[in-house]
Amino acid sequence: MAGIEVIGGLALIIGFATRYIAALDVLIMAGATIKTSNAAGFMGNTQMAGYELELSFLSMALFLVINGGKWLFIGHLIIRKHLDKTH
User: If I label 8, which of 2, 14, 35, 72 is the partner at 20 to 30 A Cα–Cα?
Assistant: First the structure.
């Protein structure tokens, strides 16, 4: 799991495969929210943190799944160069 998060985070930074990596991140964050933080509630208590941070990351990743990286992703440059060579 940690490898997916590190490599996926780097891929998101450079904008490569944004929707796919963000979809994996949505699954990871949903699993983290359900398995670990659900007992403490949204804001947590004095002994445990809540799941508000996981929910924030999940919503950001879901935004990227729906909207993609648009023109800010490196795949757009690769595709454009490939299309320029073929025409």
Answer: 35
pLDDT of 26 reads: 92
Tokens representing 65? Answer: 């799944």
| Six token digits for residue 35 | 């398995």
The closest of 15, 8, 23 to 66, measured between CA atoms, is 23
Evaluate whether 37 touches 50 at the Cβ level (below 8 Å). Answer: yes
Place of tokens 């025409």: 87
Give Dmax (Cα) for the chain: 63
Q: Which domain holds residue 40?
A: 2-86
Task: Give dist(CA 87, CA 80) in Å, integer.
Answer: 11
The residues, ordered by sequence, that sit 6+ positions from 52 with a Cβ below 8 Å of its Cβ are 42, 43, 44
pLDDT in tens, 5-53: 888 888 888 877 888 989 999 998 888 788 876 666 777 777 777 778 8
